[in-house]
Amino acid sequence: MIVSCTEKKSDKNFVLNGNIKGLKSGTIYIQRVKDTILVPIDTIKIDGDSHFTSEFDLQSPEMLYLFLDRGVTNSLDNNIAFFAEQGEMNLETTLDFFTADVKITGSKNQELYDEYKKVVTRYVNQDLDLLEKKFKAYKEGRLDEVNKMEEQQQGIMKRKYLYTTNFALNNANYEVAPYVTLAEIYDINMKYLDTIQKAMSPKVAKSLYGKKLNELVAERKKEEK
Hints:
The chain is of the alpha+beta class. The chain folds into 2 domains: 14-105, Sandwich (Immunoglobulin-like); 110-224, no CATH class. It contains 6 helices and 8 strands. The chain has a 4-stranded mixed sheet with strand order 4-1-7-8, covered by helices on one side. A 4-stranded antiparallel sheet has the order 3-2-5-6. The longest helix is centred in the middle third of the chain and has 32 residues, at 108-139.
């Protein structure tokens, strides 16, 4: 008799393999946004082994959130966003630097989103730096400088919007395009919003965020009539 042993494969279309180095005990929640609040999809108890696996069916590529309940300390550094898509993904990080050390692979949308965040973070940091200087100038009565810094902030915002628009157009074949549009520039001039919508591939247009973008464009057009 010959016995063939094969690895058990998941019957779900999405698998997340993770490792939080240093974590001995706690609870991990995989969450999604529903009606503006985070709701759990899966709950994983950690007891000794920092490795974990989460499996479920994913209808469309979607931004999900891994929340860690450490059980002892209340930390703000406990939520990791990741762009899930059908297939197998890997997420590795450490307990001490939970969000800073995270490495996520297996998703093209995540890869593109990481690139996007690198650039946008620079704009955010520039704006925060100006905000701090503007507050100090205002307290000291240097109102001319305050006005100049407000103009600089407007320039930073315009560059961020322009970059996001170009990013969405250049990556219209991926679901990250309508996602960043909805998350970052939903109030942009209708001309640009309409251009991004029309640039989406048929597959992306039928996705979760593609449908939401179509709804937003329809609402904006209705309001502007």
